Inverse folding.
């Protein structure tokens, strides 16, 4: 009889130890779906956004870009590129792809290095990424608007 109680007690203790570990893991797991974060205000005529796609708990696609009031995408603006490249040494189509690829490579877990000439965009990208990853952890697919 003592042996039976010991076994029940051991199973109960193991169950209590495993339960908190399982709940901790779930709080950091990304939920499958699409998640978007946008800046609240326009900066120099552009409102930046990050969209990620999560599949099997991992970020499998990411887009970082900006759009103007008419919905035109910043990285498609050749005139903007021609003006920015000689001054900053980079341009939207380059740095948005760089930041998006770094987000994919690190799975949103490691701080991404800033690209010279795109520091302001980098700072907004960091805020947007943090917000969108938090949304993915919650499984909340509503677009989040942040003050950047």
């Amino acid at each position: 009889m003592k042996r039976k109680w010991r076994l029940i007690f051991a199973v109960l203790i193991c169950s209590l130890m495993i339960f908190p570990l399982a709940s901790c893991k779930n709080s950091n797991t990304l939920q499958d779906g699409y998640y978007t974060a946008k800046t609240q205000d326009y900066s120099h005529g552009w409102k930046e956004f990050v969209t990620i796609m999560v599949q099997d708990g991992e970020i499998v696609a990411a887009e970082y870009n900006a759009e103007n009031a008419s919905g035109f995408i910043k990285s498609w603006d050749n005139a903007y590129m021609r003006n920015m490249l000689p001054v900053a040494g980079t341009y939207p189509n380059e740095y948005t792809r760089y930041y998006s690829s770094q987000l994919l490579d690190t799975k949103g877990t490691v701080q991404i290095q800033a690209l010279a000439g795109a520091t302001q965009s980098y700072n907004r990208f960091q805020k947007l990424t943090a917000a969108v990853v938090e949304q993915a952890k919650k499984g909340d697919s509503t677009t989040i608007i942040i003050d950047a």
